[in-house]
Amino acid sequence: MKFSTREDIAAPIEDVFKAVTTFEMYERAAMRRGADVRRRASVSDGGLGTQWDTRFMLKGKMREMAFEVTRFGPPSDVEISLISRNIAGAIICELFALSQTRTRMTVSLEARPLTLPARVLIQSLKLTKSNLNARFKKRVAELVRDMESSRNDRA
Fold first, then answer.
1. Which of 45, 54, 92, 119 could disulfide-link 113, Cβ–Cβ 3.0 to 4.6 Å?
2. How confident is the model at residue 99 (pLDDT cuts 50, 70, 90)?
3. Residue 136, CA distances (Å) to 5, 49, 113, 141, 148 in order
4. H-helix or E-strand containing 76?
């Protein structure tokens, strides 16, 4: 199952990459939504090799998932792999400089079932894929608006 969206941001690519890789922001957002997030390993610059263990409710069950930054290529891309007992996947964020002050961000999330119960879960999520895809696009758009507003606040 794959979700993907693209947003244009009124900011230079370096600023967008810095905002996208501020992982503490995502940790706090997940905790606000009820997830338990624990950073397992961290690199001093928050880059390649940073790892988290998470626990969250999904479809009425407590799920555990590990995340790890597996690609960190400033200023254009970052990939975070995810794995649980039943599901593996990746979150990929790619940045393209449209001009010195505009950046295009493409974000994709892919999840693959590893077991039969996970296959059933993914199948049930596919029934609501259009709704989930809309929510995914909305969350990325909110992230972009937050980046632009915080950039404007600093200027």
1. 119
2. very high
3. 8, 25, 19, 9, 19
4. none
